[in-house]
Amino acid sequence: MKKIVLFIFIISAAVFSQDDLKEKEKALKASTDITFEANKELADNDFIDAEVTYRRAISKSNENTAAPYNLGNAYYTKESFSEAFGRFKQAGELTSEKPVKHKAFHNMGNVFMKNKEYAKAVEAYKEALRNDPSDEETRYNLALAKELLKKDKNNKNKDDNKENQDQEEKKDKNQDQQDQGDNKDENKGDPKDEEKDSNEGDKGDQEKEENKKGDGDEKKEEKKQPEQGDQQQQKQPRPNQLSQQQIKNLLEAMQNEEKKVKEKMDAQKVKGVKTKNKKDW
User: Which residues contact residue 39 at a Cβ distance below 8 angstroms, ignoring those fewer than 6 apart?
Assistant: First the structure.
């Protein structure tokens, strides 16, 4: 009983596969016809209608690789590279035919080149050559992508080196400024210490000035002391000696005495004239 059921199931599956195949073929034919309409619209420079028609063709069948590929070319012409890349990738993944894969990956490489993604472009061109090694245009694009990639790496290394150098110079500059700031701080010191040092310096200068002044006063005092001593010695009478006033008085007394004696002598020389003696007391 089970074998009969299984047999019937196998026959039913085969019938359904044939029906599906016919439906797929029908859908592919309809999609292809719509693609031709889109190609005509694109040739007439009617991009908007062509885009809509290509999308309708793609929705009809997943096996129509021409519709996404042609739509990708239309986007590429309009420089809508992101949309173009998506359609080229879709065409390359749907098809199993090497010529279609080759064209899809070739155009994907062109999109990478436009975006300056040279490493990805190299891989895309390599994949295109795997499906068609005889295409010289793809080979040329691959060589160009490699050269631009090498140049881009060298420029990037130079930029990195320059950036690192700039960072090092900036770091050294900041370090120098920091060192200078530290030196200034060290030289500047604590304001309290500076004030203390200033006060001590002023105090020291004051002490020096006072000492200097004191030394000068002492020298003046020493110089004055002998003079004052001489004056005191001159003013004060020495023992057993007469003072100036006593000497003056003595001289006046002697002069008066001499004057009296002279007057007496002159009086005795006059004769014949009697005069009354005057008392000299």
Answer: 50, 70
